[in-house]
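Chapter summary example: a protein plus zinc ion.
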Amino acid sequence: MILVMMLVTIATVIGLRHDLDLTFKADFGDVRIGQVGGLAVNEFGELHIFHRGENVWNSFSFDADNVYTLKYFPIEVDAVVVLYKNGTLKRSFGNYTYFLPHGLTLDFEGNIWLTDVALHQVFRIPKDGRDPDLTLGYKFEPGSDTDHFCKPTDVAVLSTGEFFVADGYCNSRVIKFDKYGYFVKQWGTKSVLRNSDGFPPPGTFNFPHGLTLAEDKGKVCVADRENGRIQCFDFDGHFLNQMHPKQFGRAVYAIEYSQSHGGILFAVNGPKNNPQDVETKGFTLDINSGELLSTWNIPESGLMHPHDVAVDENNHIVYVGELNPRQVWKLNMPETLYASKSGLKRWELIGILVTIPVLVLILILVLLWLQHNGKLVRKSKKKPPPVAKDYGIDAETADTGLDISQYSVTYSQTKVPDQIFV
Ligand code: ZN
């Protein structure tokens, strides 16, 4: 049976090795798209983008106290852009409002959650609205208490309305809020220590840069960017597991959960800082085991500086937003990633076709072994005799002195062809 499981696993992994396919160019209408901070897709396959317009984050953007230095230069164009599934513009809003867009999240009601690292704030925009109905943090005021953020990076919202904020570039913590926006708890610190695995202790962060929820698994996972790993916690902040395959290299920028294939994470790593760094690319991981299932990339150019990843479950699409080039990529998931949700697909058929002959072989070997060791009884050529009513046993058996239990076995097998036991 172990052999069979191994073969099925191999067949599955082979099916996952296919790269994703590039198919798409987005049309942003009159909006000049800037560096892409955050991405998310709603139930209709509509892509929401939070971008930086003409603004860029450079070494002059903040002073030594993490205060933004260009307060009079908001993004002039609409910083939030919504595209239809076919890539054409649906709507846009948010001009002269935001400064350095970072994270964008859609919750179960379709509300749009934004983080702006220059403003040090978190915003909730009602579905189809333009202005926030909930604002957390204070404009241009960095801080580390329960009312302030310091360059918050991302939000994740539970179906209960409770939500988590990754905070962020300075504070190395994740904060949980109730559905009204009141502080519940926080976890995470910064650490310079390294465990025997070469990574800092679980629960410590070096830029918690992205969040994703696997609510069906009871997990909120964090892209622990500069530690080059993904950490997952329960909804009370208790550490569950971490993933850091060497292919991540120095940094993991963004993650997104998909229920496909029993639960997977899509991830993108950071750009190369020097030629020796690992290739910038996308990753698919099993959220249960942490196993790296596959890597993928944009044909020819490859990913340069990906900043966020989003998944359209219904249409089996993965989007990647980049800082440089200022681009959104649309990629089709390989069928192998979602096949298990809709009946038998190619990889499953491969598994079955491999498994059946192996099972038959094992059955034959077991039968031969049993026969060789005398565990099988040769079938009697005689028909079973009538039972003697007086004694409750077969009359012929009684006459010949055969053991009654042995005879019973022979009788039960009279419908099986003789040659099997030859
Ligand atoms: Zn970032």
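Key point: Residues 285 and 293 are 5 Å apart (CA to CA).
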